[in-house]
Amino acid sequence: MSSVDPPARQPALFENVPGPGSPAGGSRTADGARTVLETISPSRAGDFKQCPLLFRFRAIDRLPEPVTPPQARGTTAHLALERLFDLTAVERTPERLFDLFREEWTALRATPEYSGLFEDLDTERQWGIDSLRVVANYTRMEDPTSVAPVERELMLAEDLGEVVVRGILDRMDERPDGELVIIDYKTGNAPPERYALPAFFALKIYALLVQRQTGRTPAELRLMYLGNSTVYSIEVDRNTLNGIERQILALTTTIRAAVKRDNFPPKPSALCRWCSFQDLCPEGQAHAAPEPTLPLVGDSPATT
Fold it and tell me: Does residue 32 sit in helix, strand or coil?
């Protein structure tokens, strides 16, 4: 999956179990039951690492987050790129990719979630022009006629004993040397490399799930930032994935303790500027007030 999962793709994070009392903030059900973390996605695990309060707003309170134009661009681009590889190699032209983007947006804009996104047609038209420029960068970054993905939009679910991890990865390829590569598309501009490193956390989880499901250990994780045609890549091995499994289990324990205590402290950072919940978080508002330190255009590192 992609590093940002659309709401419809997110697995349920909590199962209800009987119990006396519960912390506030959406973790109590209508019948007074408390909640226990049963499943988690790479995206929500990343949310907790980024900011526990963000995790609470999304995973426990499940507060609505209006779709933004950058998020709409990311979702539409992901759908178009998925369909591109349904075509024969010779059909994978830039023009056909543009057509697929237009078709997917036509379908999305008819849904309630996206129908009122733009104030007028001129604004929507300019968004479309800008979006096609971003999508065009993909064909400059790699030749789609030479790509043969092993998997696309692959649903993964593995029981790690303490928690079930579920997610959908964008794409998985096989290199000429036979090694697997996990690829994630992002439609914003790439941040400086040091700020991109946290985005690999989710990809490491996907690599772990692939290893457990197939018995093969992916060798490379690749982030493709279409906004400014930048690729970041890291190598991983079995030891890396053993470490990420330990991290997930430790994180699960920490999240459960946070739920029990109803303790989700904010963790202000440069990413506060792109948070949907600034109005509920004074610390985030204060941190987001200065000019951004990340030179991003379109979407943040935490989005599509």
Answer: coil
Buried b / exposed e across 217-248, counting CB within 10 Å, b at 16+? bbbbbbbbbbbeebebeeebeeebbeebbebb
164, β-bridge pairs: 39, 159
Give, as one character, the DSSP assignment of residue 160: -
| Separation of alpha carbons 52 and 135, rounded Å | 33
Dist. CA 19–CA 32, nearest whole Å? 8
Of 56, 45, 36, 17, which is closest to residue 165 (Cα–Cα)?
45
Single out the residue of 209, 205, 218 nearest to residue 150, CA to CA.
218
- Return d(Cα 92, Cα 208) in angstroms, integer: 31
Tens-level pLDDT at each residue, the chain (304 residues): 333 333 334 444 443 333 323 333 334 444 433 456 789 999 999 999 999 999 999 999 999 988 999 999 999 999 999 999 999 999 999 999 999 999 999 999 999 999 999 999 999 999 999 999 999 999 999 999 999 999 999 999 999 998 999 999 999 999 999 999 999 999 999 988 887 888 899 999 999 999 999 999 999 999 999 999 999 999 999 999 999 999 999 999 999 999 999 999 999 988 888 888 988 988 877 766 554 444 333 444 434 4
The letter for the amino acid at 10 is Q
Phi-psi region of 183 (alpha: psi -120 to 50; beta: other; left: phi over 0): beta
CA–CA distance, 130 with 298 (Å, rounded to integer): 10
Half-sphere exposure of 120 (CA within 13 A, CB side): 1
CA distance 22 to 197: 36
